[in-house]
């Protein structure tokens, strides 16, 4: 970006939102499905009477059907939908930027519009935490959009791909303990932590609504900052979404069928393989004595 572009004053936004004839069904439908799957994945936090394992996420009691459903959810659902949602989030950011600049909106104004939306997501995330759930991704995605929008929205394609690869490499290195656990036969210890149960920091068992809201807000602040600044996997796929939106891959899928097919096959294989390890670890850890989540009363 040149000095003249930097000094150029911001102009007005040249157009409004997406018009009916401009909508692409595939990304809109994918976003909705991913949100539904995220909701299903989070149901474990609201199982009031359940005994939770070391992670505090999934219960370790229940009958054979409960355990079978849990195994399938961990393998195919838990944390498996976030990459696609982050990709679609980045894709949508670049779509908005390109749509505005194509209509004559100055680049700085388009970036400022995205920045306001990111700040709005952070605020909405805290409201969501106060009322419902502390660990949602709304705030962290808002913070990540501020960071990546500022650093990368107007960068060259090569820059996007290089930093996408860097973030992906950091993510792979972060999974090294899990790989080591598999190779050394310590799969049952995978995910075990000395920290508080997730059900505690999410206030899932707290009866006092004000105390619960305070706990959720504290946890949400941590999740927002840590997720927004340290989620390198999310950054990698969001940058990939930037790059893909410039090529209209989802709006023109017929022109990119080989890429989409290979992405689906490889993505599902990698994602479900990692999920299978987590499911096996949870099953192995489920043989330990139940550890009830602390509660001061019973659910009515």
TrEMBL record:
TM regions (residue ranges): 29-49, 81-98, 110-131, 137-153, 160-179, 221-243, 264-284
Species per Swiss-Prot/TrEMBL record: Actinopolymorpha pittospori
PANTHER family documented for this protein: INNER MEMBRANE PROTEIN
Transmembrane helix listed as a keyword: yes
Name of the protein described by the UniProt record: Membrane protein YeiB
Keyword field: Membrane, Transmembrane, Transmembrane helix
């Amino acid at each position: 970006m040149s000095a003249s572009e930097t000094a150029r004053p911001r102009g007005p936004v040249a157009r409004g939102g997406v018009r009916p004839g401009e909508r692409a069904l595939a990304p809109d439908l994918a976003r909705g499905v991913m949100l539904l799957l995220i909701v299903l994945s989070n149901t474990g936090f609201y199982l009031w009477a359940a005994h939770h394992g070391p992670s505090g996420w999934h219960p370790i009691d229940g009958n054979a059907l409960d355990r079978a459903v849990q195994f399938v959810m961990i393998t195919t659902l838990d944390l498996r939908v976030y990459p696609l949602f982050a990709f679609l989030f980045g894709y949508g950011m670049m779509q908005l930027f390109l749509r505005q600049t194509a209509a004559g909106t100055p680049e700085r104004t388009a970036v400022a519009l995205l920045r306001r939306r990111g700040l709005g997501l952070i605020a909405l995330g805290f409201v969501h935490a106060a009322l419902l759930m502390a660990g949602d991704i709304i705030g962290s995605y808002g913070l990540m959009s501020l960071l990546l929008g500022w650093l990368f929205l107007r960068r060259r394609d090569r820059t996007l791909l290089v930093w996408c690869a860097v973030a992906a490499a950091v993510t792979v290195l972060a999974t090294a303990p899990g790989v080591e656990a598999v190779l050394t036969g310590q799969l049952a210890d995978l995910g075990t932590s000395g920290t508080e149960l997730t059900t505690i920091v999410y206030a899932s068992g707290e009866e006092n609504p004000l105390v619960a809201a305070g706990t959720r807000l504290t946890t949400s602040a941590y999740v927002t900052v840590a997720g927004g600044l340290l989620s390198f996997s999310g950054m990698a796929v969001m940058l990939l979404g930037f790059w893909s939106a410039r090529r209209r891959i989802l709006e023109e899928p017929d022109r990119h069928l080989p890429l989409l097919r290979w992405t689906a096959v490889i993505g599902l294989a990698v994602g479900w393989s990692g999920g299978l390890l987590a499911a096996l670890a949870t099953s192995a850890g489920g043989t330990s004595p139940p550890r009830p989540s602390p509660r001061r009363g019973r659910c009515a």
